[in-house]
Amino acid sequence: MACIEKIYSVSALVGNGSCNANCDFCAGKYLRPEAKENKLYDKNLEAAIKLSARYGGWSLSLTSSGEVTCDSDALIRALKVYQKCANQGAYFPNVNLFTNGILLGDKEFCNKYLDIWRELGLNNIAISIHNVDEKEQAKVYGLKNYPKLETIVSNIEKHSLGVRGTLLLRKGGVDNYKKYEKSVKILIGKGINNITSWPVGNPDNTRNKYTPSRLSLFGIRSWLHLNAKKCHGHAWGGGVFDYKGNILRYTDYVTKHNPKKDFVRQLVVFQDGTVAYSWIREGALCIR
After folding, report:
1. CB 3.0–4.6 Å: which of 127, 250, 252, 275 could bond 101 by disulfide?
2. Residue boundaries of the structural domains of the chain
3. Are strands 246-250 and 239-243 parallel, antiparallel or unpaired?
4. Which residues pair with 241 in a beta bridge?
5. Which class in CATH covers the domain with range 6-287?
6. pLDDT digits over 149-161, tens only?
7. Cα–Cα distance for residue pair 128/166, rounded to 1 Å
8. Model confidence pLDDT, tens digit, residues 173-196
9. For residue 69, how many C-alpha atoms fall within 13 Å in the half-sphere facing its CB?
10. Whether the model pTM is above 0.90
């Protein structure tokens, strides 16, 4: 077994698991029974942030087993834990909120919460995008309508927060290099010039019926290498690319912890208070 030399980031599941969408495939649903008040959660979140920072961590990601913006009070509590850590020296240059973006199309909601979140340390909001066409995006989320992406971008940027796009690679949606290229260009035109992509799959890192074919994913990676300049690679696979001055990132959905490696991609703080070295908890427990 190797000694850990780097813990790159922390991912924290936040809130009560409620959701304002009805997706046909939900990666977080299996975790919702854990989404309840837990006395250990705040303490273990603080410990995970400080441990990652001690080992060179640079990113905190806030997500949920449902939709994180549906429980804004829990999000504020989590950010207050981070603010406490940052004030004590455990600071991350990237504090990201991962969301379906539905509520961020509402100007009043944004006016009520975004400044509070920013003041507590949030600096980026990543919108999950299954399809760049809002009508198709609405279908994936089980909605009648989905807000215009330009409206979401405008509402976020008015509160001095960065906007990122999580362009999900999904069979029937963005599932080959031609659709990927077209989607990237449309998103850049809509004001989203920092785009991360990964193929959807099961929480245990296995493929399912929504995962694009291996050949299609190879085509997307090949397109990136042929059309963009690689800035750096990730130790766990994938990397970051410069595409005409825009940031494109390709990565894996999840990375199983390998005790033979000297790095941890992320500490994951689950809603039951468990902290693991991976989304796949078996053999990866850190704090419980």
Report:
1. 127
2. 6-287
3. antiparallel
4. 230, 248
5. alpha beta
6. 999 999 999 999 9
7. 5
8. 999 999 999 999 999 999 999 999
9. 24
10. yes
